[in-house]
Amino acid sequence: MNDDRPTSGFDRDTMPFVAPCRRLGPFAAFGWLREGILDWRRAPRQSLAYGIFMAAIIAAVSLLAWLRGSIWLMLAMLGGFVFLAPLTCIGLYAISAQLERGQPPSMARSLRAALRRHLGNEMVFAVILLIIFLVWARAGAMISVFLPETGDPHIEDLATYLGIGSIVGALFAAVTFSASVFSLPMIMHRDVDTVTAVVTSINAVLRNKLAMVIWLAVIVSALLIGAATLFAGLVVILPIIGYAAWHGYLATIDASDFPRHTAGITAVPRRGTADSPPRDP
Description:
Elements: H1 28-42, H2 44-68, H3 71-100, H4 107-117, H5 119-142, H6 159-180, H7 183-189, H8 194-207, H9 209-228, H10 234-252
Helix pairs in contact: 1-10, 2-3, 2-10, 3-4, 3-5, 3-7, 3-10, 5-6, 6-8, 7-8, 9-10
């Protein structure tokens, strides 16, 4: 990716609607994981801080939903988490971005990136996710019409309900994954709007279906392993996945047709480029 093109050379009126993507090998995700583990080892304190924060929220949502037995409470808390997740993801990407620029990882700079520099686009993205989740919840409620009316149904009586529910869930999960897998890293990396980032992400997923299915399977498997350890494993797993997602974006998306940010971590070219960067206040 050409990181050394000067920001002043971009004409926003002629920029493309979507960034092109590279073709990935089916097992590209394992290379991203390896780089994510290296980032975790290079920034252990910052990784632990983010990991503890995210694991605590997921554990709290799951515990309250289990104790209260209320799907609406769980949906309400997940709605709040939808707005926190982009902030956390941007913070993790900022750690990786500092490391690849030869900078010491700074929690303050990563929080500044999450809470100030990219907050507008993050909130737009969160609203998009929230709308998807609300429609998902509504669709889930509607398929209850397929529940058998008998008080003690057998598994064959539930086949239609479970089948339709699985299809609906898989569809919404695929939409959510496709829209989010590369969009937040692109928002962190380049000066683009949320719609461009989301469309770029969906396009890249559609052109690398097998690699993305394997990446999704890796994420789900890792989360299940973390949950099986009473969420303690998520403290390590979640930051690694975040770092790996950043490296996956860099390996997949060619965003050189879009300008860098004028300030912040990613305003500085990655190591090996010749541009003179602006300062990060």
